[in-house]
């Protein structure tokens, strides 16, 4: 783990892991284990990360992240890229990469070239498998898009979380249904439309909640992300994080607000069954590493 008593900068970091690190999932965590206390992440940023955008990767990895814009380095040869890292990290002694790591112009260099070019220690981490499948950001994104939150969370090793700013909503919820926080979400990948059992984090406190994503087909038809905090009356919140636990149902149209309110009551009862225990911290970690033949 990093040395929290020392400010880690490019000048004192001795080990870096290189990759995209979107999600900072179970596979990435195997790379992090190799870094030691003076480690950091070299993040090749294509501005496409939507599980952990930008520096959110530092929060989930507990290591400082140094973003390298892909467009500015994609023309470098493999030796030029490593020379850049050695100039930026003057005490670099170790580089950690994944089994399928490629780098340099047209991705023409691989882990074998890295060992040849870099004069320090190179650690290549084998593919990590969990629940019988390889752990990759692309698979996690697909599960999130399909609403398969439990499967996405298993590969992540945590609950998938999005963050947003509270904005003004219709006002119907507080008057005739249940009060909700309407969220403006940017940069994050949203799960498939529907209703989810969630946890909502506000000012370092976490509450059980029910979250709706989709077009409000029973009212104004507009798209929204709304979270109802269970058994609490939350006012004045500005920034909110929502952690997804389980998809409860599809988005569907109701003929009256009365019918919608009745269904919301059912959603709340269902959500209460899931928001109390974080399953991912209860089960053992059965991740394995699959070596290349």
TrEMBL record:
The keyword Nucleotide-binding applies. It catalyses: FMN + ATP + H(+) = FAD + diphosphate; riboflavin + ATP = FMN + ADP + H(+). One of its GO terms (biological process) is riboflavin biosynthetic process. SMART domains: Flavokinase. The keyword Nucleotide-binding applies. Its EC number is 2.7.1.26, 2.7.7.2. Residues 155-276 form the Riboflavin kinase domain. Pathway: Cofactor biosynthesis; FMN biosynthesis; FMN from riboflavin (ATP route): step 1/1; Cofactor biosynthesis; FAD biosynthesis; FAD from FMN: step 1/1. Pfam families: FAD_syn (PF06574), Flavokinase (PF01687). GO terms for molecular function: ATP binding; FMN adenylyltransferase activity; riboflavin kinase activity. InterPro entries: FAD_synthase, Riboflavin_kinase, Riboflavin_kinase_bac, Riboflavin_kinase_bac/euk, Riboflavin_kinase_dom_sf, Rossmann-like_a/b/a_fold. It is an enzyme of class 2 (transferase). Keywords: ATP-binding, FAD, Flavoprotein, FMN, Kinase, Multifunctional enzyme, Nucleotide-binding, Nucleotidyltransferase, Transferase. Catalyzes the phosphorylation of riboflavin to FMN followed by the adenylation of FMN to FAD. Belongs to the ribF family. This is Riboflavin biosynthesis protein.
């Amino acid at each position: 783990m990093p040395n929290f008593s020392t400010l880690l900068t490019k000048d004192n970091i001795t080990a870096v892991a290189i990759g995209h690190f979107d999600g900072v999932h179970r596979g990435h965590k195997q790379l992090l284990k190799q870094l030691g206390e003076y480690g950091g992440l070299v993040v090749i940023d294509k501005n496409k990360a939507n599980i952990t955008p930008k520096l959110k990767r530092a929060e989930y990895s507990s290591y400082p992240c140094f973003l390298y814009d892909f467009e500015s380095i994609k023309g470098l040869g493999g030796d030029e890229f490593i020379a850049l890292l050695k100039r930026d990290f003057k005490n670099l002694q170790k580089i950690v990469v994944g089994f399928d790591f490629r780098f340099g112009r047209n991705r023409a260099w691989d882990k074998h070239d890295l060992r040849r070019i870099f004069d320090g220690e190179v650690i290549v981490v084998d593919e990590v498998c969990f629940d019988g499948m390889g752990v990759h950001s692309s698979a996690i994104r697909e599960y999130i898009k399909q609403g398969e939150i439990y499967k996405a969370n298993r590969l992540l090793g945590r609950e998938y979380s999005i963050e947003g700013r509270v904005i003004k909503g219709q006002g119907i919820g507080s008057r005739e249904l249940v009060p909700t926080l309407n969220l403006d979400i940017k940069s994050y990948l949203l799960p498939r439309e529907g209703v989810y059992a969630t946890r909502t984090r506000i000012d370092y406190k976490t509450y059980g909640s029910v979250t709706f994503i989709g077009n409000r087909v029973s009212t104004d038809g507009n798209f929204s992300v709304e979270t109802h905090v269970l058994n609490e009356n939350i006012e004045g919140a500005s920034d909110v994080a929502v952690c997804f636990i389980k998809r409860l149902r599809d988005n569907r149209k109701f003929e009256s607000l009365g019918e919608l309110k009745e269904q919301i009551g059912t959603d709340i009862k269902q959500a209460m069954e899931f928001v109390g225990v974080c399953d991912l911290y209860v089960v053992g970690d059965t991740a394995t590493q699959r070596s290349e033949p």
